[in-house]
Design brief:
The structure is a single chain. The chain is built from three helices and no strands. It has helices spanning 3-8, 12-36, 42-58. It is elongated, with a radius of gyration of 16 Å.
Length: 59
């Protein structure tokens, strides 16, 4: 089943709720990585910041 077929079965309010919960979950999962990686190499941090900047520019 693809995502479009899955979402077509729900009304607009339920679709917005599902999308909002998915966004919340992905944000929480990304923030939870801080627990596992307390210290990062400077090159890794620079690469992650560069990737994040590229995503923000592309948006």
């Amino acid at each position: 089943m693809d995502i479009v077929g899955f979402m077509e079965g729900y009304g607009p309010v339920q679709q917005a709720l599902i999308a909002g919960l998915f966004t919340w979950f992905m944000t929480a999962a990304g923030a939870a990585l801080v627990i596992f990686f307390k210290e990062l190499d400077r090159k890794v941090l620079d690469a992650m910041l560069g990737f994040a900047a590229g995503v923000m520019i592309a948006a």
